[in-house]
Amino acid sequence: MTTVQDATNITRFSADAPQKYARKRIEPLKAWRAIKALIADKEDTGQVFKIIDALSGGADERMYNRFIKTETGQRVIAEKRDLIALLNDRERLKRLPEGTLGRTYYEFMAEENLTADGLVEASQEAPRRADRPEGAQIFGDRMRDSHDLWHVTTSYGRDGLGELSQLAFYYAQTRNRGIGFIVLMGARAAHKEAPTAGIWKAVREGYRLGKTAKWLPAADWEALLDKPLAEVRATLGMGVPSTYRAIEPVTSAMEGKMYGAEQKAA
Q: What is the pTM (predicted TM-score) of this model?
């Protein structure tokens, strides 16, 4: 329920909305260096952040300006919410009823042996912009910290095809050219490894589902964590990634064989 103080905070934020920050220029050489490093070590997640940072241009500013026009966006900024603190409270998430978004997120992270802080560490490879207003920094951190919530909500796994398809979904939602470039590069490489598996079909499906879903950057994740996952998916307009689900067993098996070969070679 909205309180008088809540309304006051929102009004104050709207009146004192931060000025637009300078559009970030495209840095192709920086992106190329990060691409070469990522090819050399596919587990170096920090290079992904560098590629996105180098090629994003004005995408962050556009998303932030859209975000602060939403009711959730105004509340997040006015309250200076810290999503990662909530996601790091593993005991609270574990106590939630089975089938809720928060409990499913907890199980997903435990199964994958992940922590909410993992992406924070990787993102430090890309320097934080000093010219970004505080609200934009809060929004940027929120986008980073919600990455695995997107996985749970979209039902894409952390296998190679799942990451690629979710990035296509993410590109449709954000129009970030850095993300789009990674999707293109990854899909071409995956198609070469498995030309008959239907990689492009799964990627196009991810993009299409991202276009038809509600805008996830404005999702009130704090309120959704306690709700049944099926209800969250319906609320956010999640479609079913049927192509991905049909292809994933094949591509995951191929990844396993490639990983085994790499281990033997090492």
A: 0.81
